[in-house]
């Protein structure tokens, strides 16, 4: 839920060095959001990738952030950081996090965006209890409309909580939850944007199949989705009520919705969301198992 980010917290963030370990889409979304919202200066951000020098050049020229290609000694840049984002894929996480153990110290705030990976696993990999923030953001952070679930390890201080919440509130809304809910948040808002894009792709394809040009199909569908979402936000009415206002008795919408319902659209959406959440738990459990070997 929104907190009031006071000027003291913002001033504090602006004085901090921020390192992103893993410079992929999620790291870019958060860094770009923070820069756009003027929560930090690009020069305060360093992004490290395992490979792909071109990607780093692009990030440097687009945002002005420092970039580092992983090498034998350059993880030392982590030592300079006050906040370290862990932003690699879950399959790379165990090796990557174990590899940075020598560069991490108690004063640093570790923020993970890795799906499924528990605070306990991160502590195991780093060899001790540290200030760890487990989050589940989404890519809409890029434009300041993200949703981020946040959970804290016991060592995270009140001041560090304010920092973490201010960072993610600069790129959207936040919800602080017990860690056990992070997989649910993954199924709802972490993966959520992709469900909406899939729905839009399906509508665009169907519009084209019915004869509209690609451009017209995309324009009509995008504005329809945008308008519907904005109606929910601007009117404060329930989606079900707004749906009823579109649906004339025995009209076209009723015909469409009856068919969609018969075909199990609601159940399909619910099972997909549940599957995402289960998959997050599986990913976390796989990593935990590999750590016990
Ligand atoms: N993409 C999304 O919508 C969301 C992703 N996440 C989480 O964010 C994390 C990153 O996902 P994406 O940004 O989509 O992936 P991505 O594949 O775009 O980026 C991952 C980056 O990590 C780098 N990397 C891999 N191993 C490394 C290592 N050992 N050292 C340094 N860098 C390394 C890769 O080179 C790559 O640039 C994942 O764990 C995912 O679960 C969380 C919420 C939403
Ligand atoms: O697909 C994934 O695994 C990541 C986590 C949530 C969104 N993308």
From TrEMBL:
Catalyzes the reduction of 1-pyrroline-5-carboxylate (PCA) to L-proline. Residues 179-282 form the Pyrroline-5-carboxylate reductase dimerisation domain. Keywords: Amino-acid biosynthesis, Cytoplasm, NADP, Oxidoreductase, Proline biosynthesis. It comes from the Bacteria. It is an enzyme of class 1 (oxidoreductase). Residues 271-293 are annotated as: Disordered. Gene3D superfamilies: NAD(P)-binding Rossmann-like Domain, ProC C-terminal domain-like. It holds the Pfam family F420_oxidored. The keyword Cytoplasm applies. GO terms for biological process: L-proline biosynthetic process. Residues 275-293 have a biased composition (Basic and acidic residues). Transmembrane segments: none annotated. Its EC number is 1.5.1.2. One of its GO terms (molecular function) is pyrroline-5-carboxylate reductase activity. It catalyses: L-proline + NAD(+) = (S)-1-pyrroline-5-carboxylate + NADH + 2 H(+); L-proline + NADP(+) = (S)-1-pyrroline-5-carboxylate + NADPH + 2 H(+). Residues 17-116 form the Pyrroline-5-carboxylate reductase catalytic N-terminal domain. It is found in: Cytoplasm. Pathway: Amino-acid biosynthesis; L-proline biosynthesis; L-proline from L-glutamate 5-semialdehyde: step 1/1. It comes from Paenibacillus algorifonticola. The keyword Iron does not apply. Belongs to the pyrroline-5-carboxylate reductase family. NADPH binds at residue 74. This is Pyrroline-5-carboxylate reductase. PANTHER family: PYRROLINE-5-CARBOXYLATE REDUCTASE, PYRROLINE-5-CARBOXYLATE REDUCTASE 1. GO terms for cellular component: cytoplasm. NADP(+) binds at residues 87-90.
């Amino acid at each position: 839920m929104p907190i009031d980010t006071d000027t003291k917290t913002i001033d504090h963030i602006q004085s901090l060095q921020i390192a992103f370990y893993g410079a992929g889409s999620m790291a870019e979304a958060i860094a770009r959001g923070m820069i756009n919202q003027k929560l930090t200066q690009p020069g305060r951000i360093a992004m490290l990738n395992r490979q792909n020098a071109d990607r780093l050049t692009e990030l440097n020229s687009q945002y002005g952030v420092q970039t580092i290609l992983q090498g034998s000694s350059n993880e030392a840049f982590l030592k300079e950081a006050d906040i370290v984002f862990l932003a690699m894929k879950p399959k790379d996480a165990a090796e990557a996090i174990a590899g940075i153990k020598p560069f991490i110290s108690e004063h640093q705030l570790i923020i993970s965006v890795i799906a499924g990976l528990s605070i306990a696993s991160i502590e195991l990999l780093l060899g001790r209890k540290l200030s760890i923030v487990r989050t589940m953001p989404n890519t809409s952070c890029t434009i300041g409309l993200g949703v981020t679930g946040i959970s804290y390890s016991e060592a995270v201080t009140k001041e560090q909580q304010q920092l973490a919440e201010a960072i993610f509130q600069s790129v959207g809304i936040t919800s602080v939850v017990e860690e056990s809910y992070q997989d649910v948040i993954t199924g709802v808002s972490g993966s959520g944007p992709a469900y909406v894009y899939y729905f839009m792709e399906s509508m665009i394809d169907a519009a084209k199949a019915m004869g509209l040009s690609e451009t017209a199909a995309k324009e009509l569908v995008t504005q329809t989705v945008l308008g519907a979402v904005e109606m929910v936000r601007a009117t404060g009415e329930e989606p079900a009520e707004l749906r009823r206002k579109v649906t004339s008795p025995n009209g076209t919408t009723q015909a469409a919705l009856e068919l969609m319902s018969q075909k199990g659209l609601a159940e399909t959406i619910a099972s997909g969301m549940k599957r995402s959440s289960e998959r997050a738990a599986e990913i976390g459990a796989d990593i935990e198992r590999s750590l016990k070997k």
